[in-house]
Amino acid sequence: MASKLEKLEQLDVLEEIRDFDQYFVICFQDLDFLPDTLNQMVMIYLQNPAKLSLFLNYDDLDDYVDLMDCDLRERYLEARTVQKKQQTRLSNVENVVKELLDLLNKYQKRIVDFKDRDEVKITADIQDAIGNVLNSKYGLHIAREYTMGRSEKKIGETDLYIYKEVDGWVEDCVIIENKYIEKFDRQYDQLIGYLNCNFEAGITLSMNRNKSLKEGFDIIERKLHEKRRSAEVQCPPVSIERIEKGKVRYIVSEHIVPETKEKMKLYHLIFQLNDDERHKAAINARK
């Protein structure tokens, strides 16, 4: 290798790799986790985690716990435990959306089993399918037809109510309203009637029997924009975003919570029950 470098007149490279100090810099120039630097990083984290996150991922710092000074290590691990618990609470909604999307992908492989079921039966199927998953993975509980909020003249009944029990206290997390897509306007209004400032978010799950998946999301997006422009709609959307990343497809809107004037998100998912083209192909294949 040395002779090749000499032939290529790369003598500066040859000198650097023969110099121990330069060798140390070359090998470790991307690792700022020497003892003094590492301890400085830990102190920044303990004083201001958000500041550290501007130039370092927390998971990267986790990889160097064994190299931290003992007293800093204990303080760091204690602070990270608290932070991870907070992150878990903040991600309850995302966890529910993820599990719902996974479930819908599974259900859509056997649409025939669900096509003739009504809203109530499908809601029960969803509760049975994700109840244990939400509880075992995230410590969440799910209840069906839970009485709360408002209907037109009396207390309402949510389709699915998701909550958490922490130290004997109940934390409201998510409400899911499940209806056919033709009833989306009513679905949205009902969800707004149930949600209060204690919830993290709401979810509409629209069953689409007659349109393509794209047409279904087009309908929901159009109706959300109509609500946004209407002066008569209570808690209209103030933002609307369509998410389409591979198998992940949903729309997320935000509205202003009357009690706090803060924003709350609504996630709009579709249970696609229309497979007419595939059905016709299957019939033709058996002629």
Describe the structure.
- By secondary structure, the chain is an alpha/beta fold.
- It is 49% helix and 24% strand.
- The chain has twelve helices and seven strands.
- It has helices spanning 2-7, 11-18, 20-28, 35-47, 49-53, 58-62, 70-90, 92-107, 119-138, 184-194, 213-229, 276-285, and strands at 140-148, 156-166, 169-180, 201-208, 237-245, 248-256, 263-272.
- The protein has a seven-stranded mixed β-sheet, with helices on both faces.
- Strand 2 (156-166) and strand 3 (169-180) form a beta hairpin.
- The protein is elongated, with a radius of gyration of 27 Å.
- Mean pLDDT is 81; it is low at 7-11.
Brief characterization of the structure:
With 287 residues, this protein is α/β, with parallel strands linked by helices. It contains twelve helices and seven strands.
Break the fold down into its secondary structure elements and pairings:
Blueprint: H1 2-7, H2 11-18, H3 20-28, H4 35-47, H5 49-53, H6 58-62, H7 70-90, H8 92-107, H9 119-138, E1 140-148, E2 156-166, E3 169-180, H10 184-194, E4 201-208, H11 213-229, E5 237-245, E6 248-256, E7 263-272, H12 276-285
Parallel strand pairs: 3-4, 4-7
Antiparallel strand pairs: 1-2, 2-3, 5-6, 6-7
